[in-house]
Each structure stands twice: as C-alpha cells, then as structure tokens.
Amino acid sequence: MCFWCLFVAQYGGSMKYVLLMIVVAFGLVLAVRTSAGPAPQQDVIRLDSRISQLEQRFYTIETSLRTLEQQSRMAGMNRGGSVTPDEINLLRSEIQTLQARIIEDECALAKLDERTLSPTAREARRRAVGTDPCRANFELPLRPPSHRD
Question: What is the DSSP letter of 117?
C-alpha cells in the first residue's frame, strides 16, 4: 500500500497530522531541490533583475553627471559677467584695428576695380557717383599696411 494510506490509517486521519506531513514533505522537496542547485530559469531571472538594477544605477549616475555639468555651466555663466575694464578696452582696440584694416582693404579693392575699367567706363562712373578718395590715384601701386602681421 501507499505510504499515505498507512499514515492516515495509523493516525486516524486527523487533519493536524496530515498538514504536518504535507509541510514536512514540502520542506524535503525544497531541501533536495536547493541542494541540487537553482534551476536555470531562476538564474536567468536573477541575472535579469541584477542587470536591471545596474542599469538603474548607471542611469542615476548619468543623471547626476548631467546635473553637475549644468550647474557648472550656470556657475560659469554667472562668473562670465565679471569682465575687467582692461579686457573691454583691449577688445575695443582690437575691433577698431580690424575695422581700419577692412577700410584699407575696401579702398585697395576700389583701386583695383578702377584699374580694370576702360577709360570711358571710368569717366561714366565718375560722373554718376562722384569722386571717391579710394579711387583717386588708382595708378599708384598698392602698399600693404605696415601694421599687418
């Protein structure tokens, strides 16, 4: 006969003993199963869970880094307003130098343009526009400014 039938016959089928035997049997099954090692499916589930945790941590770290970068930029922008008057004067001086160079270059281009015109076209332009100081003495050679680098 079966083990279960003998057990029920010996203890009179009381529910208390039946539950005790079920718990003991379940415990033995779990003990045997865990001593054999976890099932491969459980390993996959644990690994997936662990990978998800690591991804969340990386995301948190990445978000923190972005926040720090933004704070750093904001702090840099706030400090950017502290330009000294000497720096402003230096920038103004450099802008004026560049503007003077542009004017000289435009004048040189006007002289070259005047050289390429035929005498009739040159005379027609003079009558229409008037006398341009850059176009006067166009036959003189162009001199590069001495202050150029």
Answer: S
Token output for 144:
């590069």
Longest CA pairwise span in the chain (Å): 135
| Element spanning 145, H or E | none
State the pLDDT at residue 1.
44
pLDDT digits over 111-144, tens only? 888 888 888 988 888 888 777 888 787 777 777 7
d(CA 5, CA 16): 16
Residue 38 CB contacts under 8 Å (≥ 6 apart), including other chains:
46
Question: Cα separation of 97 and 113, whole Å?
Answer: 24
Q: How far apart, in whole angstroms, are the C-alpha atoms of residue 135 and residue 130?
A: 10
Q: Residue 146 is encoded by which pair of tokens? A: 């001495």
d(CA 99, CA 93): 10
**Euclidean distance between CA atoms 45 and 49, whole angstroms:** 6
Q: How many CA atoms lie within 13 A of 9 on its CB side?
A: 6
The pTM of the whole model exceeds 0.85: no
